[in-house]
Specification:
Blueprint lengths: L3 E6 L4 H10 L8 E7 L19 E5 L5 H8 L4 E4 L6 H6 L2 H20 L4 E7 L22 H20 L3 E6 L1 E3 L8 H10 L4 E4 L5 E6 H14 L5 E4 L3 E4 H12 L6 E4 L14 H7 L7 H14 L1 H10 L8
Parallel strand pairs: 1-2, 1-4, 2-3, 4-5, 5-6, 6-10, 7-9, 8-12
Antiparallel strand pairs: 9-11
The protein binds nicotinamide-adenine-dinucleotide.
């Protein structure tokens, strides 16, 4: 049987590893092989890939997406790319944007150049709803102008545009996804849900930004990974697909749920100065993914959150070490 050889960048991180475990798991397609390319930054966790490390259809390559020699060597042996690798934490980009521009913009361009050179037949670029900026009301379609506010969001918007330019200029089959806030197990404990859960489970206080009324749409990792597969297998070249989760919550409401789940009270919450340039609300319109690809989020948020909290409660050996690496000046969500 002929196999599709997929290069997955950032496959040791939260979403990338979930994608790889799903592709190579019992319900995944049996006609794909996967190579993970990851430079193992602080956000990577080798243990995320333990469940697939013995699969004959899996290979790991430690390397940097910004290194053309590394990328070129691998690209020659692959048919498709699913590109998750990025610096992904907004707070870190406010502290220093250098790595964000390097990895997210330059790294993406290095991959695209190499994909073009080697005639790769599909390049799925994973982006974010943050590229649209704050959305006071309604939801942004894929046609909405990009208005990124943080250096992180700006670097992702830049990489989206570079990726789409390789389709428009060179005809490379590029597909872009823009998803909302992911949650689930194996997430590095710096973003709000794993940060708050791991702190509450160890009796520490949690920092809530500003008035706590910033709104996010929550997308379970299983739904996101299913959507990425739909885009890879059924999407169209040159198109952007928004991926939403269907549960809008402000941070105060989310905090209340997390306090309940961890058996803590509001005395565990410390209101702290707001994040610079903090977008008030994100909301993507995912009608296009629904109509064209049949995408619909399936995970009930209450159930997904309870499972996530239970996973952190049951796996301190995975996140305790990671939490030590989550050191960030004022690092929060
Ligand atoms: P993550 O921070 O958990 O993982 C990123 C991975 O990329 C890590 O394994 C890291 O080692 C790797 N990496 C970083 N720089 C690299 C480089 N130069 N070369 C090779 N590998 C490198 O991120 P995540 O939460 O899994 O996010 C994955 C993608 O999804 C990112 O592109 C992010 O922008 C996007 N996204 C994430 C969310 C979310 O809620 N987590 C929401 C929207 C979009």
């Amino acid at each position: 049987m002929s196999h599709t050889r997929i290069l997955v960048t950032g496959g040791a991180g939260f979403i990338g590893s979930h994608y790889v475990r799903t592709l190579l798991g019992p319900d995944g397609p049996d006609d794909v092989t996967v190579t993970v390319l990851d430079s193992f930054t602080y956000a990577a966790n080798p243990a995320n890939l333990d469940p697939v490390c013995d699969s004959p259809r899996y290979r790991l390559h430690a390397g940097d997406i910004c290194d053309p020699a590394v990328v070129d060597g691998l690209m020659a042996e692959h048919d498709q790319v699913v590109h998750f690798a990025a610096e992904s934490h907004v707070d870190r980009s406010l502290h220093s944007a250098t790595e964000f521009v390097r990895t997210n913009v330059l790294g993406t361009q290095v991959l695209l150049d190499s994909a073009l050179r080697h005639g790769v037949d599909r390049f799925v670029h994973i982006s974010t709803d943050e590229v649209y900026g704050s959305v006071p009301e309604g939801s942004t379609s894929e046609e909405h102008p990009l208005h990124p506010n943080s250096p992180y969001a700006a670097s992702k918007a830049a990489s989206d545009l570079v990726a789409l330019s390789y389709h428009r200029s060179h005809g490379l089959d590029v597909r872009v996804t823009r998803c909302s806030n992911n949650y689930g197990h194996h997430q590095f404990p710096e973003k709000i849900i794993p940060l708050f859960v791991t702190r509450l489970l160890t009796g520490a206080k949690v920092p809530l930004y500003g008035d706590g009324l910033n709104v996010r749409d929550w997308l379970h990792i299983d739904d996101h990974v299913r959507a990425v597969e739909l885009v890879r297998t059924r999407g169209r070249a040159g198109e952007v697909y928004n991926i939403g989760g269907g549960t809008e919550l402000d941070n105060r409401g989310l905090t209340e749920l997390l306090l309940q789940a961890c058996g803590a009270g509001w005395d565990s919450v410390e209101y702290v100065a707001d994040r610079k340039g903090h977008d008030r609300r994100y909301s993507v319109d995912w009608t296009k993914a629904h109509v064209e690809l049949g995408y619909k989020p399936q995970k009930d948020f209450t159930e997904g959150l309870a499972e996530t909290v239970a996973w952190y409660r049951d796996h301190p050996e995975v996140w305790k070490e990671a939490a030590r690496r989550a050191v960030l000046p004022g690092g929060r969500q």
